[in-house]
């Protein structure tokens, strides 16, 4: 009997081991099935209804944000599979150190222990179903913030690091400033981690009624305490786009726009079309144009004027749609792209140049799309067209897109030669409008760091210092506590010098420049020396960053996973 019992035990053990291996394969299959299910849900895009144009639109609010789309791992798993993204990490492994669950970021165990930072959020009022919130700095955080501003104005960049080491490891503005410094050194991973820490700190301060998904919660950018949240979201969105997660970046863009859709302080309307096209969310872009054109005049922005017909063209190539929907999309695409070419003729030639496409003789020799169209356009329009061409030219390189564009360019030239009244009316509108851009567009250009657009900024913007943690603050700011005034630097500095100064305020690119006419070579040497000194100072600063965690009482017996 003992021998038989031992054999039976061995058989049971073998069955258990076989069962565990089978369970592992089932878990892997479940992960893949979940990914496939998410892709199907993504394709159907939720509950939908037919519209007059025949294009299916989402029945939820336009700026509705889904929690699952805020996690870049979900998008990466759709591209590469769950095993490639997660590896040996357990999908639902809980964090012991940063125990608070968040939606915007996933806290890492290597981050400093989170404690109360002195930032809270208050509900100011509720009007017509819209809730207005604001962040508030308590006395503790105010002291750290004033010390941060004092150190920035004292031209000592190394003084920012002690704030994170000893006083406040989750000081938001310091984290954003150091993130820019790491990004300048092409350390995208560390730059992203610092921005995520800033977002984690702010999300832990949310009011219980503040919702990321409803689209009815507002923050006033005029309050300095709220700007850090806007800027952290924007920087995180740009890093996600560079990381290859356009769908997640689009969701963050919708979140930023929902916080203040009327004023749009960071002017994400200049970017949302690009993210929608990259994420292949063509229905969202066309729906936004249909719903907002009447009260926001989106067609007066070059990016919407060209991106919306491109979205209709991509919809017309989807074979799973009915023939009626395809014909309607083709007709709409042709109509809108011709209007865009008539309204903004200066976009065509730079767009073809960036796509390395040589126009035919008729287009190249015609004055409507020639060099005069670019020279005669107002400066504000030049900034908008430069932004769009540099940002989205890669989407136009497809041969089918180029063939479609060529057909419509020839149609527009027929209208121009026939002296269509629409051509003259559009030229009149261009001369009246776009004389000067609002402050939020300048702010967007500075944050986007597209050199072609920054070169077109007016002197009143380039002559003032631009701080990376608060670029071009609103002129009607609502100040809740006294802040030191910023030091006015000489107005003859270049945009590059001012940008470097925003990261390292003691940097002086022109201080040691030679002004003698016969020493141009020496001036070039001084320029290189100044840039090298900047990078050397930055390397010293980044090399000395060490986060000191406060002592904690760990339970040596409680290292297992939480139930």
Description of the molecule:
With 563 residues, the chain is mainly α. It is built from 24 helices and 5 strands. Strand 1 (48-49) and strand 2 (57-58) form a beta hairpin. The protein starts with a helix and ends in a 20-residue tail after the last helix. The longest helix has 43 residues, at 2-44. A 3-stranded mixed β-sheet has the order 3-4-5. Helix 7 crosses helix 8, helix 9 (246-259) runs antiparallel to helix 10 (272-278) and helix 11 packs antiparallel against helix 12. Among the domains are: 63-75 and 112-267 and 467-483, Tetratricopeptide repeat domain (Serine Threonine Protein Phosphatase 5, Tetratricopeptide repeat), CATH 1.25.40.10; 281-437, no CATH class.
Summarize the structure.
This is TCF25 factor. This protein has 24 helices and 5 strands.
What descriptors fit this protein?
563 residues; mainly alpha; globular; disordered C terminus; TCF25/Rqc1; TCF25 factor; TPR-like_helical_dom_sf
The level of helicity is: 55-70%
Order of helical and strand elements: HEEHHEEHHHHEHHHHHHHHHHHHHHHHH
Describe the main β-sheet briefly: 3 strands, mixed
Distance between the termini: 40 Å
Counting H and I runs of at least 4 residues, what is the number of helices? 24
Shape, per Cα inertia axes: globular
- The radius of gyration computed from the alpha-carbon positions, rounded to a whole number of angstroms, is 27 Å
Strand order of the largest sheet: 3-4-5
Structural class: mainly alpha
The fraction of residues assigned to DSSP E strands is: under 5%
CATH topology-level name of the domain at 63-75 and 112-267 and 467-483 = Serine Threonine Protein Phosphatase 5, Tetratricopeptide repeat
Mean pLDDT: 80
Please mark out the parts with pLDDT under 50 across 5 or more consecutive residues, or reply none.
Answer: 38-57, 90-98, 509-527, 553-563
What is the CATH superfamily label of the domain at 63-75 and 112-267 and 467-483?
Answer: Tetratricopeptide repeat domain
Indicate the CATH architecture of the domain at 63-75 and 112-267 and 467-483: Alpha Horseshoe
DSSP E strands, number: 5
The CATH first-level class of the domain at 63-75 and 112-267 and 467-483 comes to Mainly Alpha
């Amino acid at each position: 009997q003992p021998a038989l019992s031992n054999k039976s035990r061995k058989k049971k053990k073998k069955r258990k081991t076989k069962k565990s291996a089978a369970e592992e394969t089932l878990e892997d299959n479940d992960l893949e099935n979940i990914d496939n299910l998410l892709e199907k849900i993504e394709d159907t895009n939720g509950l939908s209804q037919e519209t007059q144009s025949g294009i299916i639109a989402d029945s939820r609010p336009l700026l509705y944000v889904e929690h699952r789309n805020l996690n870049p791992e979900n998008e990466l798993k759709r591209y590469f599979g769950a095993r490639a993204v997660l590896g040996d990490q357990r999908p639902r492994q809980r964090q012991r150190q940063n125990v608070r669950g968040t939606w915007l970021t996933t806290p890492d165990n290597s981050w400093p222990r989170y404690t109360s930072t002195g930032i809270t959020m208050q509900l100011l009022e509720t009007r017509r179903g819209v809730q207005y919130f604001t962040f508030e700095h308590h006395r503790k955080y105010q002291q750290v913030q004033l010390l941060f501003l004092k150190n920035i104005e004292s031209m000592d960049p190394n003084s920012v690091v002690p704030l994170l080491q000893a006083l406040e490891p989750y000081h938001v503005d310091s984290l954003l400033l150091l993130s820019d410094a790491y990004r300048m050194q092409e350390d995208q991973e560390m730059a992203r981690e610092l921005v995520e820490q800033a977002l984690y700190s702010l999300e832990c301060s949310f009011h219980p009624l503040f919702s990321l998904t409803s689209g009815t919660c507002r923050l006033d950018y005029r309050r300095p305490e709220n700007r850090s949240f806007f800027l952290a979201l924007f920087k995180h969105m740009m890093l996600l786009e560079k990381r290859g997660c356009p769908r997640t970046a689009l969701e963050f863009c919708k979140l930023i726009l929902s916080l203040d859709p009327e004023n749009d302080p960071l002017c994400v309307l200049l970017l949302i079309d690009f993210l929608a096209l990259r994420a292949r969310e063509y229905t969202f872009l066309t729906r936004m144009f249909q719903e907002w054109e009447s009260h926001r005049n989106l067609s007066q922005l070059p990016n919407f004027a060209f991106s919306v017909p491109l979205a209709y063209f991509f919809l017309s190539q989807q074979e799973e749609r009915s023939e009626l929907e395809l014909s309607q999309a083709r007709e709409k695409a042709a109509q809108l792209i011709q209007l865009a070419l008539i309204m903004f003729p200066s976009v065509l030639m730079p767009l073809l140049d960036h796509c390395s496409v040589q126009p035919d003789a008729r287009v190249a020799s015609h004055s409507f799309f020639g060099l005069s169209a670019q020279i005669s356009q107002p400066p504000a329009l030049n900034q908008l067209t430069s932004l769009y061409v540099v940002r989205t030219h890669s989407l136009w390189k497809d041969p089918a897109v180029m063939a479609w564009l060529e057909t419509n360019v020839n149609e527009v030239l027929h209208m121009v030669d026939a002296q269509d009244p629409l051509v003259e009316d559009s030229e009149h509108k261009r001369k009246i409008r776009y004389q000067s851009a609002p402050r939020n567009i300048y702010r967007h250009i500075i944050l986007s760091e597209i050199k072609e657009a920054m070169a077109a900024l007016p002197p009143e913007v380039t002559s003032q210092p631009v701080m990376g943690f608060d670029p071009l603050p609103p002129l009607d700011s609502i100040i809740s506590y006294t802040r030191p005034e910023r030091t006015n630097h000489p107005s003859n500095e270049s945009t590059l010098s001012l940008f470097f100064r925003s990261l390292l305020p003691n940097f002086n690119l022109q201080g040691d420049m030679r002004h003698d006419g016969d020493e141009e070579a020496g001036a070039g040497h001084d320029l290189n020396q100044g840039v090298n000194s900047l990078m050397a100072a930055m390397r010293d600063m980044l090399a000395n960053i060490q986060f000191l965690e406060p002592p904690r009482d760990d339970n040596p017996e409680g290292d297992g996973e939480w139930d």
